[in-house]
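Figure S7 source data.
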Amino acid sequence: MSDTKDLGTEEQLRRVLTVERYPRSSTYDQLWVVDNLMGPHPLWAAEALTQVMLLRPGMRVLDLGCGTALTSIFLAREYDVQVWAVDLWVEPTENWERIQQAGVAGRVHPVHADARTLPFADGFFDAIVSLDAYHYFGTDALYLPYCVEFLRPGGSLGIVAPGLRRDPGPDLPAYLAERWGPDMCTWLGPDWWRRHWERTGLVEVDVADMVPGGWEDWLRWLDACELVGRGHEPDARMLRADGGDLLGFTRVLAHRVR
Ligand SMILES: C[S@@+](CC[C@H](N)C(=O)[O-])C[C@H]1O[C@@H](n2cnc3c(N)ncnc32)[C@H](O)[C@@H]1O
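Tokens for the predicted S-adenosylmethionine complex:
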């Protein structure tokens, strides 16, 4: 990033966060993304998901744990879907401001709710997405059966969340042990999520993988955030030491079979 140090912050962020893998995300104001961050680049996560998940215009989409609703805005703008932007920690009034400013007031509906007590009708949604959020509530074996009730039969559920490609076992590498905490117990891999969902008999899993280049994107994001004093050095150090061996983003897509 040394070649960007004399540029203004906005331009530096634009350069560092323009990534070929995510052409749609690259058209957004990256300072807007960083200013509203709650975790790794949310638009990249949404775009990584939509690279395997089909969204058609007019679909009803639940964005579960939408945070500051950037992904809801992105989905409405890019795929012309109707989005219910549900979050627990971020006030819907605050999200409504962002939604109106983004010009998608007719297509994004902010809702304050706990993912475990959703105020929707059974079968209402064509798709449910959850970006960097599902692991906060979805590891409960009873959660998927609850959640898919809100999907029409054949509707899809897609998530992207931090994950470890495989179970590191009891002897953690030093760089993981140094950062380890309860949050990381929910950083599960594609095989774990596939089994967790498929054993319910309620969905078929279409994709369960690690987002290609996910660890590099994560590190790039943290380095960019560092430019505005919002990096996270312990995570950056861990990602560098891992070099993509274990860490990255798990992506899982399934559809409701009954
Ligand atoms: C790391 S943030 C990610 C937010 C956003 N999806 C993004 O990518 O920027 C995790 C989000 O999950 C939401 N969350 C956690 N537990 C939740 C729950 N039980 N119900 C609804 N949302 C929840 C939080 O409110 C928070 O906004």
